[in-house]
Specification:
mainly alpha, 3 helices, 82% helix, 0% strand, elongated
Length: 104
């Protein structure tokens, strides 16, 4: 096989491997945010009501990601960008709620 063909094959393999890695990254990020909510409840930084709202928000994000993955092709770059934007907003909401004046 010629050198350029090897590069093409290697590039295609790399593309195929990046989608599962991105899916894993989203799952790890979701898990970290869930852990932040639990930690906030345990430390008293989040009230039960705040935690409930944040949990529902996280569930909506997870449902959106699952729905986007359900088509069988994984996440497209646009879907991945949307998921990251949703997780960014959710992360900011967790931070705001943990650092507001309300305590358990």
């Amino acid at each position: 096989m010629s050198n350029w063909k090897l590069k093409v094959v290697a590039g295609l393999l790399a593309l195929g491997m990046s989608a599962p890695a991105a899916a894993g990254a989203l799952a790890r990020r979701e898990a970290r945010q869930e852990a932040r909510i639990v930690q906030g409840v345990q430390s008293g930084q989040l009230t039960a009501r705040e935690a409930g709202r944040l949990e529902r928000r996280e569930a909506r994000v997870a449902a959106t990601i699952a729905r986007d993955r359900a088509d069988g092709g994984g996440l497209t770059p646009a879907e991945r960008a949307r998921a990251n934007a949703m997780l960014d907003r959710s992360s900011r909401a967790i931070s705001r709620q943990k650092h507001d004046a309300q305590h358990r």
